[in-house]
Amino acid sequence: MKRFLLLSLTLAGTTLSAQDHFSGINTSQRVGIQNVHLNPAELANLRSKYEVHLFSASVGFSNNKIGFSDLSGDDNLEDLIFRGTDPVDLRFDAELIGPSFAFRYKKWGFGFTTKANAKLDLIDVDVNIGDAISNSDVLLGTTTISNNFNQRLSGTTWGEIGLSAARNIYDSEKHELNLGATIKLLFPGSYANFGADRFTGTIYNDIGTSYLADAQANLNIAYSGNLGENFTDFSDYSSSLFGKLNGFAADLGANYQWKGTESAKYLLNAGLSIRNIGAMTFKDANNASTNYVLNIPPPTIGDPGLDLSQFDDTESLEEVEQILLNSGYLNRTDAETKDFKVKLPTTLSLYADVKVIAGFYVTLFTKQKLNKDEANDQIASQNVFSVTPRYSWNNFEIWSNWSSNEVAGVAGGVGLRAYGFYVGSGSVITALASDAKQGDFYIGYSFGLR
Question: What is the number of domains present in the chain?
Fold first, then answer.
């Protein structure tokens, strides 16, 4: 368990990364695959008859504890992440969009897309528990814990193939309305989840060793694929992005344009989409998903409680589970499930790109999650709001994205598009100028054919 925490902290310290992927380019006036991932109805607005997407990658990191200025100090990451009293929220998120293709035919637009996803989340982790596990040999004093929420450590990888279609259903001299949908074929790769719901207990130190006693919690331990065997090696995330077809999801969208002149393209481009409606089933030889009740009595002379130093060298949830079972404090509440279903992070997105003056536009965007992150079978997401002023020409765009997400707060960055090449970050400005707690970077290339 300690190594799982350390992996999360290492990602925090070594990755420039936000949670709204491809911020800025996904509302570009050069409509391409990024716009389609945001809203499938944008397929009807393709500028080229054919659109070829070669590659794009985005990595994102946000947390509520560590700022960029902390990384240059002498304090170790474990001490920084578990300081204060607020629970730890830490999210690492990566998307890789592979070869994709789209085209227009009369009032229709069609698309074929490929994408791989990797996520690692610490959600509402109690700082006292995290500090006790990371520093089990140096903890001093006694700490009482009482939580009424579900703490989660979760990792997920999966791949997607999307089949999209959009149609223009109304088109006049000044107004246009499009509807679109994407059906996703899901390929679950690996999964790991440790959930501790309504955790109460006491942590104390006895002759250099930390113990947990007088504790109760409802636990869920689930794992599949590489992340079940080892969650301390990041290569296990990258090597298991695509599994076998075992799930389906859908994106639905609508798009409205108030048309401008030929040079202005539009005065307003607005859209609404609901994304990731669906779930996938994990199946693997080492699969397991089990619910338990943890019950540790108050300490006695013969039974001081659960020795937390046992988790120092664990590398898998199987090891964590076995240690807890061997302790005698863990009891199953239902049978072990070999195949289990995990829900995608369903979100509602709204955006409006408004012309201010010739060549200058401002985009307002919000993404709101529709499911709760604390459910053990739920892939987590974040609520985001952003404002993006941009200068746009036919072959060039430059923008500055300013966002606020529920975990890390405010971030600001810049991006650039030259023909079909784009690069950007939604947080580089605040990362360099202030003590920002999030970062991101993305890059990609696509081209259109008439």
Answer: 1
